Amino acid sequence: MIDKIAEGKLHKYYKENTLLNQQFFVDNKLDVKGYLKSVNSDLTVTDFKRSSLV
To answer: How many angstroms separate the CA atoms of 24 and 7, rounded?
Structure first.
């Protein structure tokens, strides 16, 4: 049971904190990885820029 809880917490952490697993900002149904694959399966992320609204 503790293994399942830890696995769920890790999954949530990766979804919120890694770029490819975050929701795509234009379409919340896709994550960034899914969007890249839908456009072209050969695309890869080589650089990114973080922006925040305060």
So the answer is: 23
Question: Concatenated DSSP letters for 13-33?
Answer: HHHHHSGGGSBPSS-TTSBHH
Q: How far is CA 22 from CA 35, 37, 44, in A?
A: 11, 14, 15
Q: What is the pLDDT of residues 39-53, one digit of tens each?
A: 998 988 899 888 888
State the residue for tokens 């399966």. Answer: 41
Q: What pTM was estimated for this model as a whole?
A: 0.63
Q: How many whole angstroms separate alpha carbon 28 and alpha carbon 33?
A: 12
